[in-house]
Amino acid sequence: MNTYKYTTIFGGGRRSELVFHGFFLLLSLVPILGFVIHGTWDQVQLGLAVMVAFFTSREMIRYVLETRRGSREEG
Known about the structure:
about 80 residues; mainly alpha
């Protein structure tokens, strides 16, 4: 499975990485804003779950990219 394609969904490069992370950050803010407006705790839990998934995926993508760079330099 090619996990690298998920980082290049917006075309690749540093700018697309920022767009990719910005998208998930905005997605995680929507339920929190919903809590501020409507006051339901379920939306906060959903927002926190999305934020945890966002930071986990960011670290996973960084790890995959670093290991790919390392394998290119070795081989």
